[in-house]
Amino acid sequence: MVVEQAQEANEEQDKDSKTCGKILVVLSWIFVVMTMPFSLFICFKVVQEYERAVIFRLGRLLSGGAKGPGIFFILPCIDTYARVDLRTRTYDVPPQEVLTKDSVTVSVDAVVYYRVHNATISIANVENAHHSTRLLAQTTLRNTMGTRPLHEILSERMTISGNMQLSLDEATEAWGIKVERVEIKDVRLPVQLQRAMAAEAEAAREARAKVIAAEGEQKASRALREASEVIGDSPAALQLRYLQTLNTISAEKNSTIVFPLPIDILTYFMKAREERD
């Protein structure tokens, strides 16, 4: 019973306000007509291509949505309007001290690109859409970094930026804001941690260098063994290798060249020794 009475009272109040509003609109039109052409300078407004005008008539949003770009008309004394810039804005998120999932304190800063995609909602649903978006960007950056270990923050910046962009865009949809892009600028580590990581990287490089050198020695040893087997199986190959060595020595500008005994003589003495044995 009480609820019904309250509803009836609200309906009567709405009717009275609508009637009063109509009367004020009529009086405003009379004022415009009586003061023409001077009233035209007050009634006609212009917004740029990148702007929209949200008009309120007696405190209520005017039907038809935001006006612009170009010329639009307002009634003096009863209409007010707010200009909304639709261009993309850039917000440089100040460095945030974040404790990562593996308990490392880092300083992270980012850049957020956003714009107003619904001028009416950005004025009617939130007091200051730009300020609210910037505060939300700071808290989202801290929350996102706090759920990830340090190695993911350093190696997966693109993935983290994409997740932040989706989270911000979903939260700011009710404010008429569209978050277009989020970029992580820099991740600053403590000095002690930088030194430790540098020492670890240096040790890893030295270890890789030693492994590569050992693999090279192993391959060289295998190649020498295969070469010795080929030379041992073919006396002609040994003779060719001997001649190649002499050619290499003669090509160098040496003052003294030592010629060893011919291979054939050595082979003769070796066979003679074997026969005696």
UniProtKB/TrEMBL annotation:
- List the InterPro entries hit by this protein, alphabetically: Band-7_stomatin-like, Band_7, Band_7/SPFH_dom_sf, Band_7/stomatin-like_CS, Stomatin_HflK_fam
Short name of one Pfam family: Band_7
Domain named Band: which ranges? 42-201
What the entry lists under SMART domains is as follows: PHB
Q: Which PROSITE patterns match?
A: BAND_7
Instruction: Enumerate the UniProt keywords alphabetically.
Output: Membrane, Transmembrane, Transmembrane helix
UniProt record similarity statement? Belongs to the band 7/mec-2 family.
The protein's name: Band 7 domain-containing protein
Native source organism of the sequence: Plutella xylostella (Diamondback moth)
